[in-house]
Design a protein that fits this description.
Layout lengths: L3 H19 L4 E2 L12 H11 L5 H10 L2 E3 L2 E3 L15 H11 L1 H6 L3 E6 L4 E6 L9 E6 L2 E6 L2 H12 L1
Antiparallel strand pairs: 1-2, 2-3, 4-5, 5-6, 6-7
Helix pairs in contact: 1-6
């Protein structure tokens, strides 16, 4: 028997897919038609060991379903490869290391966070691991030095940001 939470997750997933097909002028979420490696729990542990943060269940679903994507022209950081030594710019691990090493003032503002999305308006959205429950954590917005709660998980982030965009 499915739990109430499973039903909610399925509703999130359906809504995201409806938005993907209905608003393709604003949203680019490629499906798994592209060749890519699956990101399973074991690989997520490797990521956690390298970066220091676990990947949430909703973000792993996103990676395995869409690989990555864009909302209103802004890239959702994804994982480009499993090798941490050769990370390109849109990779979430690259962004973490780049911010930590080259932008210490920003890194210090989101010390227990992992940036997943930045807009052309200097808005930074990040996973806030202060409330990580073992599978999910909230998404917060850093805008002009101010932190603001945005959503309780990555599914809700996708839905809310797409709705703001369309």
């Amino acid at each position: 028997m499915k739990s109430k939470n499973d039903h909610k997750i399925n509703e999130y997933r359906k809504k995201i897919e409806i938005f993907r097909t209905r608003y393709s002028d604003f949203i680019e979420l490629p499906t798994t038609q592209y060749e890519h490696e699956e990101y399973d729990k074991e690989w997520a542990e490797t990521f956690k060991d390298k970066v220091g943060f676990p990947l949430t269940d909703s973000y792993l679903w996103f990676l395995n379903t869409y690989i990555g994507g864009y909302i209103c022209g802004d890239e959702i950081y994804s994982i480009y490869c499993k090798e941490f030594e050769s990370l390109p710019g849109g990779d979430i691990a690259f962004q973490y290391f780049n911010t930590r090493d080259n932008f210490p003032e920003i890194h210090s503002m989101i010390k227990n966070g992992l940036v997943v999305f930045e807009t052309g308006f200097d808005e930074t959205f990040y996973f806030n691991y202060d409330d990580y429950d073992g599978s999910e954590c909230s998404i917060w917005l850093l805008d002009r030095g101010e932190h603001e709660y945005f959503t309780s998980n990555f599914y809700e982030f996708l839905i809310k940001y797409i709705q703001l965009c369309i």
